[in-house]
Specification:
198 residues, mainly alpha, 3-stranded antiparallel sheet, two-stranded antiparallel ribbon, 8 helices, 5 strands
Amino acid sequence: RARVSDRFWIGSVTKTFVATVVLQLVAEGELSLDDTVERRLPGRLREGSKVRIRHLLGHTSGVPDYMRNDPWFSRVSANPRAVIPADRLIDSVSDRLDFEPGTRAEYSNTNYLLLGAIVERIERRSIGAVLAERLFRPLGLKATAFESLGRQLRDGRMRGYEVGVGRPRDVTFHTLGGPWADGAIVSNAPDLARFFRA
């Protein structure tokens, strides 16, 4: 039975934490919503001079979602526990845009890999350390941590299941390629409530 205090992988809710840090950096004058990816990560995207921080935050960048491309698709299909470095995932879609930035919205996990890389470049330390210092510790989120590698069952963590057609399937140890700034936080319900109240 699940308990309120049980910890679980929060997946893409991680993006809300990363967006909060990005907006803190904007408020501090370290970053602008109109900065381009080219300015902040030179040479990372072929069309990086068109893509702004505001586009990444709002999924209006046109940067393709790495989850619809290789190596992610074939590696994770072959091994649900595969871990692929974020840099390689960004590189897999860095040569094109799916649409002109700002003309429409389309969810892309790659947006938040880029934002994580930008935060690390500005702060000169890992995104996990930045999240801990700026959010987890000040808010007293003791059950919350950034864990980008394999999944483990410890510290009162719940198992995860995929539901849909047929019987539920245990996916507790599936990594989805090793989420990073797009989905690597583990937390619990009280910590998430405290974060969103703050």
